[in-house]
Every structure is written in C-alpha cells, then in structure tokens.
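Aim 2 progress update. The chain analyzed this quarter is reproduced below.
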Amino acid sequence: MNGWRAGLAAIGLGLLVWQATVWMTGVPRFILPGPALVAETMWTSRALLFEHALVTISAVLMGLVLGGILGGLSAIALAASPVARSLLRPNPRALQPRCRVQKTSNSLWLHQFLSSVV
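Predicted structure tokens:
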C-alpha cells in the first residue's frame, strides 16, 4: 500500500470510529457532533472561518517578524558589546558537573567495616 493510500485509509478509519462512537453513545450533538455535521457546519460557515483564519495568520506572521527583528537586534548588540557578551555567554566551567568521586577516609573505613562483617 502506498503512503498516501495508507494515510487515506487511516483518516477514513478514524472518521468511521468517530461516527460509530456518536451513534453508540447517544451523546448530544453539541457535545460530540458527528463528522458529517462538522463538515456541513464548516462548509456553511466558510466565510466566517476564512475571516478568522486571516486574523490568526496575520497575528502569527506579525509575531514571526517581530521575533526576527528583536533576535537580529539582540545578535548585533551581543556582537558589538563585549560586556553584554561576557554577561550572557554561558560559562563552560558552570556547566561542568560539580560532583567528583573521591576516596576519603570515610569510604576506606566503610570498606574495611563491610569487609570485616562479611
């Protein structure tokens, strides 16, 4: 089976399970509408959906542009300012683990104690 055929089969199976769930449970339409009702509502409200999709897409694009501008300005500021670079660059020593296993007199005492018990 090709990839797109498997995808269509999975979508069809999902829609069948959804519709069977609606029929078998008897849940009210406003809680769990069937796939046909959802498709019909989307078709009759397509102008409203398109209008709201445009608003959402424009907000996403504005956020993307604003984030790109602020990120670019931050990169320029970090490249130009040694003080900002030293404050914001991660310290490699701080990222190293602090714990080290060392033999101490306590661990030698514990080893001697355990070996004498056994």
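The mean pLDDT is 84. The chain has five helices and no strands. These observations will guide the mutagenesis experiments scheduled for the next reporting period.
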